[in-house]
Amino acid sequence: AASSPNDNSEVSSWVTFKGEIFDITDFVGLHPGGNKIMLAAGGALEPFWALYAVHSQEHVLEILSQYKVGELSAEDQLEKSYNDDVSDPYAWDPQRHPALVVNSLKPFNAEPPPEILTEDPITPNTFFFKRNHLPVPHVDPDSYKLEISGTGLPDTLTLTLDDLKTKFAKHTVTATLQCAGNRRSEMNKVKTVKGLEWGRGAISTARWGGVRLRDVLLHAGYKPDSCSLVQHVQFEGLDKDVTGTSYGASIPLHKALSEDGDVLLAYEMNGEVLPLDHGFPLRVVVPGVVGARNVKWLGKIILSAEESQSHWQQNDYKGFSPSVDWDTVDFSSAPAIQELPIQSAITEPEDGAILEKDSDMLTIKGYAWSGGGREVVRVDVSLDGGKTWCVAELRSAEGEEARPLGKAWAWKLWELSVPFPPDMNQLDIVCKAVDNSYNTQPDTVAPIWNLRGVLCNAWHRVRVTVTTH
Q1: pTM
Q2: What are the tens digits of pLDDT across the range 87-103?
Q3: I want to staple 70 with a disulfide (CB 3.0 to 4.6 A). Which of 4, 103, 288, 301 is the partner?
């Protein structure tokens, strides 16, 4: 039995951790994850904290210690150890390249070093940024089944991986994926935000191979003109938390059904079998749309009148005014991010670099991309903080040089080689991109700051020192 200074368990919320008992009743309202903490009420925290390693930080343990009310008896300790002997939920996570810049180990989130990003317009699978919300699931491709159901369909359809590969035409789409939190670290410099400390590497480009979502939905029996109730296509992944809740998201039906939308159910990435970290055996690729809607380890497709009701669609990945804080935020007041705004960044040189003037020319490299299939038509680069500008040369992936209007799904790499400015030993290098709708980037971060640190697309700035022998 649990020893405690009081016996108020019927109205209190108690949890255990490492043999100790905590009354978290007064903390529930303060928990950053909201009422999700109540899922552990009456039981152990360990299985939940195994999923979210952020809880292992010292300050979190200090907060928990304030709510200690007792300890488990030796008898209960033995029973608890047996009941909580669960396998590591991250046991199926693959090995990753040590060059990746890791932002979180569990779940794994990492970005490539910036200079690797612009080596080639197609990012190698190994260095494609990794964004996992939950553990990588173990999926047997031989027994894998995709379930398609919902409003407007005569029946639930189940397809195997072999069905997808043999019953539908294969298509290849070159598309850039970008996390909503790319460049979040720059927002943190203005004011602290909630989220992973992404640099400018939470963006990558691949050639995706698979079948069109449109073809699969039509095969399942959906008739576009017969049911006006359907407005959204929901996706559920096979990655789950300890409660069995899957990662989920949705996109508008018109994007899913558009012949020009190029939405894929992808089983290949850069000509190889889809890697584990990127959704093996099947994922959604929604060109031009934020990475969060490109659901990996796809298990279900649901046609619905409503958006996905998942946490990640309803209470995350939304933008707000700089004046909104965690006391005033109302996630229901903002639309879920779909298409992303114009973006560019400098990958070489690094901020704070010391450049030796051993030649007459300075080379600056970077990337530029715009959501919604809008083509990047120009990148402007300044060496003096935006007082004067030069136009960079643009480079596309092979075969992507002349895309149809509205279907420029892949980024452009850019490069500028200019003479070192005379009599300047401090350079304030800035870049900004322009797309074919003449959208351009805001000059500073502060006016676009938001509490989740998403949609950071201000001019990217790198300050370097120039020395001579």
Answers
A1: 0.84
A2: 689 999 999 999 999 99
A3: 4
